[in-house]
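[job 4417] fold queue: 2 targets
>>> target A
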Amino acid sequence: MPPVQPVPAASTPGPQLRDIHLPAAPSWWPPAPGWWVLAALMLAVMVAAAWWWRRRRRVRRQQQDVLRELDRLVLQHRQSGDQAALVSGMHQLLRRVARRHDSTAAQQRGDAWRQTLARVPVDASTLEHLLALDRLIYQPPSSFDDAVMIEAMRRWLRLAVVPASWKPLSPEHADA
């Protein structure tokens, strides 16, 4: 048998092959779905942080305004020595701040007023000093420990301005 002669490549029928081409590099846009989720979470965290910061800043400003008003009353009392004006001003300030959280606070007396003041978590002695203001405005000027009364007002006002610090209304108080 005679040896087989190889056939030249040019004479073989079929497709002509080209060099290997790599696919195009992946585009940076649009990002993969995981990046969209991460961006949405980051945006939500930033919005929540901005809301919290603005709320906290507003509460701090309100605290400063209320305590500044108390300081103004104390300064007037030290200059004039008028205890009746101090008691009246402190009582009005107390009622105004309480009215922010309970619209009926301006008309409350007795036990209803005590329950409204007690919604702010302060100790019993602070609460008693604040309730004494309600009695002192109707009495002739007498001697009372104004430093203790002012400190009780500061403690209550500092907490009362923060809406989250108020305890919820009790069912019997809500019906009144």
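>>> target B
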Amino acid sequence: MSRTARVIWDDALTSYDFGPGHPLAPVRVELTMALARELGVLDKVETAGCAPASDDELAMVHERGYIEAVKRVSATGAPDLSAGLGTPDNPAFRGVHEASALIAGASLAAARAVWEGTAEHAVNVAGGLHHAMAATASGFCVYNDPALAIAWLLARGATRVAYVDVDVHHGDGVQAAFYGDPRVLTISLHESPRTLFPGTGFSEETGAEGTAVNVPLPAGCGDAGWLRAFDAVVPPLLREFRPEVLVTQHGCDSHALDPLANLMLSVDGQRTAYAALHRLAHETAGGRWIVTGGGGYELVQVVPRAWTHLIAEVAGHPIAPATPTGEEWRRLARERTGETPPLTMTDGRNPEFRSLSGGYDPGDPIDRAIMATRNAVFPLHGLDPMP
């Protein structure tokens, strides 16, 4: 399906490091790239480097005073709580500006490649830092690279950009950046804010002309329910909105093994979502697809396999689920983490779901969440909320 796919990568992207014991450990992206390399996925794509985002580029989303505050923390390592740096979630560290600006620059490079047509799809697995706000760090995120990629597209004349966020946490920073802008459709599927950070993302948060869409799912939701919700909300809205570019965030912390959240997806269910978004990029956005990573805190069992599947999907060469992970990669994973790595690229699941078109069950909390979202936003897009 893909024509030209590009992976934006620089080994320095692993310098975004909040220190020992922090859940957002850079080894997760290191092991992702190593697994993708071992399985031949990187042979199927172009790989390109990136430059750090400039202050002017960062200022498309972030306040100048905040950028200066991050630079001061970066130079000294001293906390600045007014900027959200120096908390348990966002520890202060020397070099934080440079590391964060490079991740932002990688997503801007992906946006540039897709908008200018040098690549049809582009992916930055180190990106997806969707919680950062205009003037504060939040939720392990300093600069909001997906929002910056979208703002860059708008500045170059894009009039309709869609953003789909499948991280287990609400994509609050991206939503906030464009909440009043009907040119940007943001869709976030996440665990209910009643049980998980950041406490936002209720279905009634609908933004300008219904262009903020939230699907809060109950704790314990697995592959079948999650895919049912995705199918009931995302394809109809993308088909109606017809974006010029599709931007997606792929936090894999929705997995059952993730230590920070309570959804129950498998790698196989996540892989199914990646394939669906790939098809929708071609169907609704002319194939223009910008892809980022995101959350994911099971560093060996989940993140490398999920995002290697993601890169392979972006490349148009999906990996068979039963593919072995490879002895060299398993050796590296053991050396870097001390953990026993998985043997294959599957959790052994065969994700299936029932479409909402067959009717909904008002007694099912997943169906109630789906219908709350459809009732809140579908009429604003001229769509019938009833299945």
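[job 4417] complete. Note on B: Strands lie at 5-8, 46-48, 121-124, 161-165, 184-191, 212-217, 245-249, 289-292.
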